[in-house]
Amino acid sequence: MTITLTADDRTIQAREGSSVLSACLLAGIYIPHLCWLEADAPADAPAACRLCFVEIDGFREPVAACAVTVENGMTIRTGTEAVRSLQKTALKLLLSVHRVDCKHCPANKACQLQNIAKFLGTGLACKPFERVLKEPEVDSRHPVWDYYPNRCVLCGICVRVCPQHHPHSLLSFARRGFETVVGYFDVDPVAAADCVSCRACLESCPTGALVQRTAGKG
Ligand code: FES
Fold this sequence. Notes:
CATH topology of the domain at 2-80: Ubiquitin-like (UB roll)
Oligomer: single chain
CATH architecture of the domain at 2-80: Roll
Largest sheet: 5 strands, mixed
Order of helices and strands: EEHEEEHHEHEEHHE
Structural class: alpha+beta
Number of strands: 9
Bound molecules: FE2/S2 (inorganic) cluster
């Protein structure tokens, strides 16, 4: 069933049960986002990146658009001062643990962080937050790809995409807090061969944190 709502003074249609983020994107209204997958129902959205803030009439504070279900007659504002301020803070937090070395990154010019920084007009500097990076710079234990923790925004998309292509997910979050990284379970040669033909995690990564080794170490 289709419902009607208002976003940025435009009347738009949305599928019942879909998220505010999905409805706005489908209507051509861009909201920055990193951790959302198109198949996500609002209740399943991890709401991890905290970039997709919007204001909605009836809500006391801005909310993550990926985690809110559309309702008939809803009024949404995607570009208010409060929304932009929260989005810029979320981006700065992500950049505070991100190695900004775009020239040497395989995702250069296709990186979602670059696109969002451009959209928000912030650039890729992370002031006023101090930049803190992880060691080591690269994890090369996987047989066919490398993982760069300081490019990873921990959106979790690779972790969630993997089991859509394999009987068991080969990826998971590992460690805690600042030390959190994407780890993989021990990969036997058969599973590794499967990884080469699959590439779903590599292709879903928004920042070039997962890189096929044959394509170079970035
Ligand atoms: Fe909504 Fe990441 S897309 S919090």
